[in-house]
Amino acid sequence: MAVTHDVSPRLDDLVVTAHRIRQAIESVIEGKGDAVRLTLTVLLAEGHLLIEDVPGVGKTMLAKALARSIDCPVRRIQFTPDLLPSDITGVSAYNQQTREFEFKPGPVFASIVVGDEINRASPKTQSALLECMEEHQVTVDGTTYALDSPFMVIATQNPIEMEGTYPLPEAQRDRFTARIAMGYPAPGAELEMLDVHGATSPLDKLEPVATTAEVKALIEAVRAVYVSQPIKKYAVDLVTATRHSPELRLGASPRSTLQLVRAARAHAALAGRDYVIPDDLQELCVPVLAHRLLPSVEAQGQRRMPEQVMADLVRQVPVPEAQTK
């Protein structure tokens, strides 16, 4: 049983501000509370989000709703087969007046970058995001440029069996903190959507409800959330279990352990707690770890998805008995 603590004023402000952002997003996205909550969790964990599902279920709408809810620089990239890496990062162009090369920043220079249908671009173009997602910087022609803070990539993709798609490389998937699927809306939510979205898009009326400074303050508050030693060991045990599972030929990386703990901090903060409990890790294991896993041939033959394997591993790994601060 966890020992309770008084919620700090900073954490209290985080809950209030996050609630405003969540309400703004849900005014556009009906009936997807879990997806919206995970999106906010990834934002406050300083991570990146991959939204994967069939066309037309609101992937891009969710990304745009988050971007418009925060008063910060936002850029959108439409990934296509002919998109070049320089179209994302920027390019050095020769200025005839100054007779010098000048750097023209690409759309990645923003606080929130919405990458629409990322797996319709070639793997070479997809890899242009590797450095900026991991190191928050871009190197062009030997010169390194720092990116804005906060910095978040929200990418959407269609399932790989859809026509005209390329599978994301393992290194690319590993840089996304979490992956979510929107799913089809419930009949009631879809009926409401016909009324709300019938004449105009609710995105047109969406106004920012938080500033960049407020988001930075929220991220600082999340960093201060306490993670006990048993909880850290529990996170390592969960990740290690994926590396030893006979149903997986590729387990989760050490990077995923860091991102799992960061996401757990944000998850705890959104719940009004200044400490992480096992439930935080258990709830996040599938969205944070499953997309990094590759099933074995036997598991593929049995149609065992990485999400199912991960859920089983969560039930098998022993849970710490007590958490105190």
UniProtKB/TrEMBL annotation:
<dbReference type="GO" id="GO:0005524">
    <property type="term" value="F:ATP binding"/>
</dbReference>
<feature type="domain" description="ChlI/MoxR AAA lid">
    <location>
        <begin position="241"/>
        <end position="307"/>
    </location>
</feature>
<dbReference type="GO" id="GO:0016887">
    <property type="term" value="F:ATP hydrolysis activity"/>
</dbReference>
<dbReference type="Pfam" id="PF17863">
    <property type="entry name" value="AAA_lid_2"/>
</dbReference>
<feature type="domain" description="ATPase AAA-3">
    <location>
        <begin position="48"/>
        <end position="177"/>
    </location>
</feature>
<dbReference type="Pfam" id="PF07726">
    <property type="entry name" value="AAA_3"/>
</dbReference>
<dbReference type="InterPro" id="IPR027417">
    <property type="entry name" value="P-loop_NTPase"/>
</dbReference>
<dbReference type="InterPro" id="IPR050764">
    <property type="entry name" value="CbbQ/NirQ/NorQ/GpvN"/>
</dbReference>
<dbReference type="InterPro" id="IPR011703">
    <property type="entry name" value="ATPase_AAA-3"/>
</dbReference>
<dbReference type="InterPro" id="IPR041628">
    <property type="entry name" value="ChlI/MoxR_AAA_lid"/>
</dbReference>
<protein>
    <recommendedName>
        <fullName>ATPase</fullName>
    </recommendedName>
</protein>
